[in-house]
Amino acid sequence: MASTDKVSPRDRLLDAAARLSYRDGVCVGIEALCREAGVSKRSMYQFFESKDAMLAASLERRIPRYDAQLAHPDPEAATPRERILYVFERLEQASVAADYHGCPYLAVLVELKDPRHPASVVARAVKDRLAERFRADAERGGARDPELLARQLVLVFDGASARAGAKVEHLGDGLATATVTALLDAAGMR
């Protein structure tokens, strides 16, 4: 791992915002964020106009990693059904980690409740992209109603993520993939 003097203060702030907001929620204070990053408040405001802007930038920065975690390792060879199921397999694998607190994008939407908040805008776009990915795979896989199936899949993803993140459901037993398999079968998905 790089020492903090080789990582820019902006990047340290974004990393701190990602860690603390995921662990403690988006209401984490500026002082705590700056202390975690080893950056002064004055410096923080030189990089970001507000804590809200920093949180949105932190979420934006995590999108490639989030997408990569859910992307099938061989998307061209995998069937649409396999690509969808892979997302839920990854969710199940991630959910058993002690530091798993659910989907960071869903958490932001639930905590902020303001659809115009900069972080909510980023989070909504991520969730919409996941729904579109499910819809496209459902269509390619011959689902009778790809739009409905995509909505159902997002509902299962978000519900399973939230329940596992709250530690009220254990997904390590394949519950999410079994639920999704039933939905794919019912939708006529190949």
What can you see in these coordinates?
The chain is built from nine helices and no strands. Helices cover 69% and strands 0% of the residues. The longest helix is centred in the last third of the chain and has 23 residues, at 118-140. The model has no long low-confidence stretch (mean pLDDT 95). The protein has 190 residues and is mainly alpha-helical. It has helices spanning 9-24, 30-37, 41-47, 51-70, 80-95, 104-112, 118-140, 146-165, 175-186. The relative contact order is 0.12.
Q: Beta fraction of the residues?
A: under 5%
Q: What is the end-to-end distance?
A: 44 Å
Main beta-sheet strand count, sense and barrel state: none
How many structural domains in the coordinates? Answer: 2
Which runs of at least 5 residues are low in confidence (pLDDT < 50)?
Answer: none
The SSE order reads HHHHHHHHH
What is the annotated CATH architecture of the largest domain?
Answer: Orthogonal Bundle
Query: What fold name goes in the CATH topology slot of the largest domain?
Result: Tetracycline Repressor, domain 2
CATH class membership of the largest domain: Mainly Alpha
Shape: elongated
Number of helices: 9
Number of strands: 0
